[in-house]
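User: Before I run my own analysis I want an independent prediction to cross-check against. Here's the chain; please return only the structure tokens and, at the end, one sentence I can use as a sanity check.
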Amino acid sequence: MAEKYKVLYNIRLHLIIGTANRLPLILPDNEKQLFAIVKECFHNQNFKVEAINGSKEHLHLLLQASPNWVISDAIDMALNESKNVINEALFPAHSFDWHTEYGVYSVSQSQVERLIDYIEKQKQVHSRKSFITEWKEFQNVHGINP
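Assistant: Structure tokens:
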């Protein structure tokens, strides 16, 4: 019989997800509840959400992931669940959806505090920079050229 090995891991991910069509649906009057829903839905997929914040059309999350899942499948499940719960709780016309593309980037332990600070300061970041500019910068920094 094959031996079972113990896995020691520290898998941290930076997820950036926008609303469908970049609609400004994440507003001051709903963001606290929306963040709580998203956090719970990611928790349901065995992610630990270490930070969450964003602006009117997108979110940033710092996630700690389990090695027992295919990451993209778990993220897809969390996003689909959160979309459904957000619509039930906040958008009775079911007008909320996530964009069909998201970015997920690995985060080294040495960059965790810096990323948490960046996520916490999203309102200030986007007073100076558009989401599209930020999105393109992250793609370039991480060597992604769509």
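Sanity check: The chain has five helices and four strands.
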